[in-house]
Amino acid sequence: MTGKTIFISDIHMGINARTNWYQDRVHRKALKGFLRYILKHATGINEVVILGDWFDQWTYSPTGNPPDVTQIMEDNKDIFISQEDGSGDFISVMEAIRGNLRFINGNHDMLVELKDINGWLAQHTDQRVYPGVGGDLAKPSSENTFYQNDNGKIYAEHGHLYDLFNKPANMPQNQYAPVPVGHFITRTVGDYVLKQLDSAHPNSACLKGSGDPNYSNFGIDLKVICETIIDLIKRGEEPNISEITLDIVLSFDKTGKLNYNMQWHCGGCPSSDAVDNYYPGLFSPGNLFEDLREAGVSFEGLDCFAKQHFNKNPRVRVMVMGHTHDYKLVWSGREKDPVYMNSGFYCASIPDMESGKKMLTFVEVIETDNAGFTINEKKIADYKTGVVIQGQSATID
What we know:
Low-confidence stretches: none
Number of domains: 2
Number of strands: 12
Oligomer: single chain
Distance between the termini: 14 Å
CATH topology of the largest domain: Purple Acid Phosphatase, chain A, domain 2
CATH architecture of the largest domain: 4-Layer Sandwich
Mean pLDDT: 95
């Protein structure tokens, strides 16, 4: 099938809490610019796929109460319901692309259910959001983890399933399963963010580095983690990597202990000390190499896992992931070789966008008449206007 498939990830829409990475007043015009791009090119688009972290239930302070998805949609209503001025909205996009909008779950929205998204939409439109694969409008979040096109040549997922700290954690000791330790790390960072805010920096989007989930920004050094783990193994002790990592972030936050409001999921208010015990066996000395590779995702990206997927699935020609908030194109330059692209993110901070350090990006995959592909990076030239420009590109057989 010829035509375009559009991928966007990591919008991170919340309720505009001060700690949220996506802030309506900062990012709305850029997001609407993306939506207008879809409306303008709708006739040539087969599908639009949101690769996870569309919604955000993580970037809240420890005392905050993360919202459910209907609260988020209601709080950002002008992004979802039809706008007569043509400024861009999701319902108009769904109508223009004949209902072919798909969503797969990421880590920040791993508990968001399609049935709840579509339940809210039902109050405003006949359009519905589809899962990554198939037509089950109530497909459980735990099963909605990847996208694949009809001929199997384009594959996409969020990327958190390769991330030791952020993949679902279903061990029996975790009373908040499948919520991983990464959730509590992010909430701890929310406490740090609140301490940095003032009248000149009223929300997270005003802070340099906000929206960049690389753990090195919060005092976590992979080398230090590795050295600590090896030292514990040498002493005959079993390393608790969740405790090691959370303690580093607490120290960075200059906080000895925190309690986390979990009313949004199962209730309760566990302490950081209690969280340490939820994830035994997260790191296994017997699986040292693979676990360290997964621990490194927050520092080094997903490239090795894309290569692994291509090796196991030679039919796949194009793979797209998000999660790391780090746009990149990985390709040998040879037309016979597959292409991996990371779609980047849509919630960079004002200082990072204005300095040019970060840009808001999405990916356009064009399947051509000769069964080849052109893969385009699309960038928002200016977050204040939402104008879309061309970035890097690759063409393969």
